[in-house]
Amino acid sequence: MTSIDQQPLGSPFSAASTAQDVTAGLDLSGTNAVVTGGYSGLGLETTRALAAAGARVVVPARRPDIARAVLADVPGCEVIAMDLTDLADVRAAAAYLRDSLPKLDLLMAVAGVMATPERRVGPGWEGQLAANHFGHFALACDLYPLLAAADGARVVVNSSAGHTLTDIRWHDPHFRTGYDKWLAYGQAKTANALFAVHLDTLGRGDGVRAFSLHPGKIITGLQREMALREQIDRGWVDEHGTVIATDFKTPAQGAATGLWAATTPLLDGRGGRYLEDCDVAAISAPEASMDDGGVRAYAVDPEAAARLWDLSVTATGATPITTRIAAAAR
Length: 330
Fold this sequence. Notes:
Layout: H1 19-23, E1 32-36, H2 41-52, E2 56-61, H3 64-70, E3 77-81, H4 87-100, E4 106-109, E5 120-121, E6 125-126, H5 127-149, E7 154-158, H6 181-203, E8 209-214, H7 228-233, H8 251-254, H9 256-263, E9 274-276, E10 279-280, H10 302-316, H11 324-329
Helix pairs in contact: 4-5, 5-6, 6-10
């Protein structure tokens, strides 16, 4: 991918746009969507907006009882149990979806964790990489037949400006030599962007396009494992937890870019892009602040994306994606 691919398209929406702005007037009747994390924060805004436009939405949830209570008033919404850090759970949820849906038009990978204490899951994986990347990777691979069966499916992966903290730590992705919660978060967000790049490369022949995005700065449940004092010291909130930073979005604004990615015709025939503020982001300089916007070149590099894909298949044992093009070649 070149910097030309990462040029803004002149979207009619902006950083101030909301989920409701982006989906106003859309008729998504007949659309099937899966939204991870779809019962809190940006995921909840995403679920509500898609359902209001007529989509059937399935929300895989680590806490299904809580999710069902939150989403009880959302029409056309189903909750199923799934923990992204448990691959057996992911495979069971994917098997259920393959049995119950004829096709999948939208896979919205919104769930995530941020700056958590050191946590090992599965075979000793670093917890943020497992929850943010490996779980979504395995889910997308298992659901690929449903995506390929749709007419122009899109996969939308929530990355973050936090990807600017680090490239993939190829020498030590699981922080065996010492843990840093922010570098672990940054690596997971870089992985999210690279995942979209290679999924798009594999899927475009089947009409499956993938995108990653920075939703903006928003206070949601994502910060649940950060101490209030740390958030205060960063200038995000006051002593009462009230947002005081002037460059933060509301959850409805934070969900807008993902919904734009899922529905805009401006992205027809395009994929693999990293988005922000309801448009394609430009490549950012290595020394640029994450607050300046843009995407680092390493996070949209196709060779790195292919390398991470191979690493992820080996780690998770995910079903390799078989496209119509690959099948025809055999």
